[in-house]
Automatic annotation (TrEMBL):
Compartments, as annotated in UniProt: Cytoplasm
Protein species of origin: Halorubrum salinarum
Principal cellular location given in the protein's record: cytoplasm
Lineage: Archaea, Methanobacteriati, Methanobacteriota, Stenosarchaea group, Halobacteria
Annotated protein name in UniProt: Geranylgeranylglyceryl phosphate synthase
Protein task: Prenyltransferase that catalyzes the transfer of the geranylgeranyl moiety of geranylgeranyl diphosphate (GGPP) to the C3 hydroxyl of sn-glycerol-1-phosphate (G1P). This reaction is the first ether-bond-formation step in the biosynthesis of archaeal membrane lipids.
UniProt GO MF annotations: heptaprenylglyceryl phosphate synthase activity; magnesium ion binding; phosphoglycerol geranylgeranyltransferase activity
GO BP annotations listed: glycerophospholipid biosynthetic process
């Protein structure tokens, strides 16, 4: 089976709770050359903030995916290409593994054809996502590879996401996840801030995800990371 992300090198993650740089617009964001925009963040995201970003980006060509951090922020919009639904494999308890998902399916009427699975392995203990989900980030490369294989082989996850949100990761651990996968696509995110860092992590993963750089530095810096990913 083919998936849109089979051909991606670069995803830009827009946090609906954060502003763009002064003078920059969503048109600029959509013209960075990124392969897709993923809309989501851990803290202080609401359906209203999500809608604002989706509506602002809808008229441009780039694929738009929502990445909800809880069932309450999922929005129903024809402008979305799909939903990337996290499951935190190394979470401290079941809520972020199956509990939130059970609640979502109970209260909502899902469009399964646009709903896709993302197995998170959360690696930076300082990140809000690690704190919220009480993730066990004390993992060796072997642990990371094993989680990736479990996600793909036993839980049928379409995407495995090694998440270092806010810090540049350990390439050996990212490579261990990459080596473990045959079918699932490996996303890497965390601390990518220029051509070099993008190029380096792109060599150890299938798709790199760039987040805070957009909000902190702006679209020109993001464009450099797109080049770094494409050249890897
Ligand atoms: C079942 C549904 C619809 C939702 C639950 C989905 C799950 C398990 C979410 C838990 C993990 C999570 C909060 C993912 C959100 C995406 C993410 C990691 C965004 C990056 O967040 P950070 O960069 O750490 O946070 P801030 O930038 O907001 O501080
Ligand atoms: O914000 P950064 O550190 O680029 O991380 C990107 C993404 O993996 C966050 O979910
Ligand atoms: Mg962030």
């Amino acid at each position: 089976m083919t998936n849109p992300w089979d051909d991606w090198d670069h995803v830009l993650k827009v946090d609906p709770d954060k502003d763009l740089r002064p003078g920059e617009t969503f048109e600029d964001v959509c013209r960075t050359g990124t392969d897709a925009i993923e809309i989501g963040g851990t803290l202080d995201v609401t359906a209203e903030k999500m809608t604002r970003v989706v509506d602002a980006a809808a008229e441009y060509d780039v694929p738009l995916y929502q990445e909800p951090s809880n069932p309450g922020v999922v929005i129903d919009s024809p402008s979305l290409d799909g939903y990337l639904i996290p499951t935190v494999f190394n979470a401290g308890g079941p809520f972020w593994i199956t509990g939130a998902h059970k609640e979502w399916v109970r209260i909502d009427d899902l469009d399964w054809s646009r709903t896709h699975t993302e197995a998170y392995i959360v690696m930076n203990p300082e990140a809000s996502v690690a704190q919220l989900t009480e993730a066990d980030c004390d993992l060796s490369a072997d642990d990371v590879g094993a989680y990736a294989k479990v996600a793909e082989r036993m839980f049928g996850q379409e995407i495995v996401y090694v998440e270092y949100s806010g810090t540049f990761g350990d390439t050996e651990k990212v490579a261990a996840a990459h080596d473990a996968l045959d079918d699932a696509t490996l996303f890497y995110g965390g601390g990518i801030h220029d051509y070099e860092s993008a190029n380096e992590m792109a060599a150890h993963s299938d798709v790199i995800v760039v987040g805070d750089l957009l909000h902190d530095e702006g679209v020109d810096a993001v464009r450099e990371t797109v080049k770094g990913a494409q050249d890897a």
